[in-house]
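Hi U.,

Before I forget, here's the chain from the pilot set. I'm dumping it here mostly so it's searchable later in email.
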Amino acid sequence: MKKQTPLLSTFSLILFLLAACAPKQIQLPDEFVKKAVSATLTALPAPTQSAPPTALPAPTAFSLAGLFCEYQFCIGHPLDVAFFDVSAKQSSAPPNTYSQGILAGLNGKLFIQLIWQLSPGSSNPQFLFDAILNDAVDVAAKNSSVFLVRGMNVVYDDISSTATSTLPYGGGGAWTCGDRVFAWKVYTPQAENARPLFDAALDRFICE
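Structure:
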């Protein structure tokens, strides 16, 4: 069986992509975002051997008591899945800024990713939702919700993923705030966890 790529090696790959692909312009191109997101996904844990069938566990309640505040925005996250700044892992990589960035958080029960960039002039955040999905492993349910939250245009859809067998469900959303667009994605062990996590994260979201 092929050995899994170590987490630190994956982060190095992400940083290489950031350094190699970052454009002169401030806006993140969709292809660059997809490559960085794809590289991050290889850090997801996978079981080394098949586990015997077990009864399905009761839904897990995740508390978004944590709060990430940087780059002139704040967003909620579970206490045990704190965001790390992907770009900050290597000083030679373009750092996260107000204009663009990639954050990720991971434990055995959740994988969360957040990206942002300057708005290209459209109030529709769908393009960044599409960018944060990985075509190789993510499938959107195509049952998206479009709504307003405190004046922000928001889209959300459930997703399924084959990135790891332990986290096959998830959801993603994107929204506009001021002159920026944000996109968020989660992988979870249970389908019913994704939307409450997104709503709770967005509930605590503010930007300047």
